[in-house]
## 1
Amino acid sequence: DPLRMLKALRHFSTLEGFTLNKESKDAIRKYSPYIRGIAGERIKYEMDLILASNRPYEAIKVAEDTGVLYEIFPELLELKKFDEKYGLDLKTLDHTLLSLKYLKKWNRVSHLKEKGVIEVGYALIFHDLGKPRTFFFDKEKGVVHFFGHEKISMEISEKIMERLRFSHNQKRVVLELIRHHMWIFLLCKDTPTLRATKRLILKMGDLTPSLILLTLCDMFGTTQGKRNETTDRVLEYSKELIKMYRDFMIEPPPKIIDGYDLISLGYEEGPFLGQVLREIREKQATGEITDREQAIEYARERLRFQ
């Protein structure tokens, strides 16, 4: 059973004192292509256990060294080839894999359960897959950009998750984390305002702790675990953010309008109606909408041409 290759890596990551000898690694290297014949859900089951373990990074590095990682996620080969071609100081693949090393350590901020840690783990593996296709070098400034890489990463990731038979909800969570994985970094370029923080919490909802863990792992994967002024600023904000999130969950602001209100005014139920309601909640959290009349007026304006 070729799945035993992944089971060996899972035991390596979960069992204290368990090691893989050279013969075992050589065998995995030789037979790694056979993993492609295994059902996606069986591969995912073993990957879930690896990501939830105390040593996900170490196991994934062995998977990379033996080649079985690229049989499971051939999309990662594009990162490897990109690094080899351009030789940037920050290797995209190395950074991606190293970020897994910090899942357990920085979950002490987010306190996610196993399911949440696994989802963040996948988001870390997938979040920069779009970088090779969005690479841009500004010759005048001597700066590299990856504009819109989140969108491309999401497109690539969705195909991977379909192949590995992710549940609909897990796909949604992972894609949402990838979509917003730069949000906290961007806020921390300046001093985050209370309004911006409330907007993030309302937008991300229950995924706020997951986004925090993703951000911290991504960040320390970049710095190789080293602390500096920037990491300290992001870490401090993350701690403030998780506290505000918990306070918000305990006592969220009351809804000033809901779907029934809008349907009673003659608007049809549907996805766009839900989107408008979410926009109203965001503006309520930031103080842009303060009462029912303002909410209805905003909804009428947004729904006018629907």
## 2
Amino acid sequence: MTEDKLLKRQLKKAGISSFDSVDEEAFDKLLQYIEQSYRDNSETRRIMEHSLDIASQEMREVVDDLEKAHREVEKKDKLMFQQSRFAQMGEMISMIAHQWRQPLNMISVTTASIQFDVMLDKIENEKLIASMESIASYSQHLSDTIDDFRNFFRPAKEMQRTSYCEEVKSVLNIIEDSIAAKNIEIIKELNCKSEFNVYSNELKHVIINLIKNSEDVLVENNIENPYIKIRTYKQDKTRILEISDNGGGISPENIEKIFDPYFSTKIKKSGTGLGLYMSKIIIEEHCGGQLEVANNSDGAVFKVILSH
């Protein structure tokens, strides 16, 4: 149909009303029109192909730029994550030093007691055995602390099957004594024991960041009867970990920026300002969940939300 219309149009231009009235001059005109039409179509196709080549090249350059920008963002995030990790490592070493103080003191007291009994020649087998068992128990506690610390900073290559309860327990094994030494009460309401697959060390990193954030606020604001509440529960098809405190909350002008990199509300700028930013990256990009913050009547409430 389209070819018929095109032919009729060319015939009309050449002054031919029908094939019965074709003379040599009209036929030559028809051939000229057809040839010109072919050249016009060829030129149009050439221009279109050239335009497509240019567009394709520009598209490739845009894709290359996007891939380069993506690599730069990944490189920056990795560097920021390492920076946050090293800062947290320093804090945890300080916590472990506090964690070790009591068992080391008890080992020292127990060995001094044994030494004193030996000097007085009053050593009793039952007391000696009990003392040695105590020393072994304290030493095991020291060893467990080192294992927790080493496992925390070991790169996770595969997801592990775990639960909020296990992760919270592992974190508190390292930092609970340090927090308790500041007279901060830790309230645990761990009601979600269901397991899920996650990068365990990264989730621990987030939990420590959130707990330490609460601790810093409570200490800086000199809060009376300070507490940190850790809750886990199920809601619809999600598992939720809540970490809250009675530190007074986050001001309206800061709450929208609280997850920005290098943003900090701390009076003493001893941190990197990366803890909450990296926590959000971990939960949302690595765990497929959400990290939210809001204020309640006592203070800030951070929620880690993971889907079933």
## 3
Amino acid sequence: MQKHYPITTQKFNGERFKDHGLDLDVLPELIAYKTLLIETAKALWRAKNPDRPRIKRNFEDGLKLKFYTIQPGSVAIPIEREYEVEESLFPIVRKPDELDEAAALLDEAMNAAAADQLLPAGFPKNVIPFFDDLGKTLREDESIEFSPARGGAKIIYTREVRDRLLKRSANEYSDQLNVHGEIRAASLDGNRFTVRQDDGTKVEGRFQPEQEVIVTDALREHVSCRVEIQGVGFFSADGILRRIDRVDRLVVRRLGEQSYDSTARPIWDVVEELGQSIPAEEWEKLPKDASINLDKYLYGKGESQP
């Protein structure tokens, strides 16, 4: 059974769209956004699965995007994701995946570029060149307004925003970083250290004097611990981290230790949001006595309880 849910709405603003008609020349903008989403999702999957040389089979088959209508008000196109679910007596809660994460990261990246700020630390730098096709058909007085379905501020994407993003792929640049790895060397003269990232590449950087004890302890116990580094680094044009210029946060974790993300949303908020995304007609299909006759409905066993 096929279902769909909203990702974002692309609204085209400008003189060309005041008649509420979609100029066929801008259709490539929809394809460009889809490409960005898919490439970002792939990069996120690879980051989560560094030991797997190839992306999992049929990965892209689960990333189907469609639009079913064009809304009034310039030209607004709601982009939705289609997905497959099995028939079930109970509403199935869809688990967010890499494409949902990619949509959020793209919003953050475009918003940061619009404000001329550093890109989010988790944004895959190798995806930046794909912004070349997003905004390519826009004229000087035009923009694409993105309204994320999950809420939050709207993003105004212009040719200027596109140029800012592309400059980061054409030249070396500084940006936020989030590095995981093993401290392999440290020098107290100049507060320098070397970290081997999870993908095996090594990068040098500078730490703050107050971080000296953390760095030296992590080096001494490098066999049994790993570090997470957040800060600012210097990247090559192809998005490769060349050096760590500033360490804002340095956390040491024992191997096998579960990390705690204090910024993560409470699970009950996530469950409530997922529940609200299920149409009322689906909830109506639930048996009123499901809580006391669960075995009967799940397994076809047991007698009904009054």
## 4
Amino acid sequence: MSVSELERQAQGWLLDCEIRQLSSNTLDLRRVITGKLLWYLREQGHTHCDGVAVRAFLAYLANGHKQEGGRWGNGQLTRAPRPKTIKLYYDDLAAMFRFLVGQGVVVKNPMEGISKPVVRQDQVQPFTGEQVQALLSAAKRSENPRRNEAIILFLLDTGARASEVCSLKVGDVDLTQKRCSVAGKGNKKRQICFGPTTARALLKYLSEAPRPEDAGLFLSDKGGSAGEGLTRVGLRLLFVRLGKVAKLSGVRCSPHTFRHTFAVNFLRRGGNVFTLKELLGHTALHMV
């Protein structure tokens, strides 16, 4: 299949994903992945997409950070991707090519014979109490102290996913009852609760600039999206900055580490894994 035809057919696959009502996060990820594949094929001078080209793309995904100029030609992307990221690319490309085979667009799936990437258990270290305090101190010295302190406390209290935090609207939060409604994977709604300290931090943050209920809860203050809802990339970069200011070591400073910290603390306080599964929005115990 030519690269130009692949681009056209990929749009048809993405449209089919929309028709099947996949979540906005899944759709966004699949747009990114197909866009990266097309970028790579053109950057390397491929006129057609076959098994060799797809295999080379997956190898580039794993090793592109070593090249001069960084992965995707971005000088800031010089770190190896997580194995889970490579598997996400593999799974979504496999889904796209299965769709194209089913539609009769291609006769042979170019991913046949390409082994699925191995993803070993990621041993995420939780934050210690001292590290949490260092992050809160860094947040209070940041450009947006009330927002950043509220985000840290909210993540610690709820174990919410980064995507759930970024999609929150003002109207989703009930400060009186100290709870809020989040949309998890597959747009599954669930209620999560937070403590009085987090409620006070949220109240202080919202009192800075009252806004309508359909506005984003946590707003971005940098880049082209300033004033809009904070994105997952923006949230990740926020914790990269805070982690440097707090001088953390031996732990990955990311939104997911807060989620892991919440789970560990919950179990240490005597909670059971069945309740934890529901709190985290997981569908199976092995995901806890």
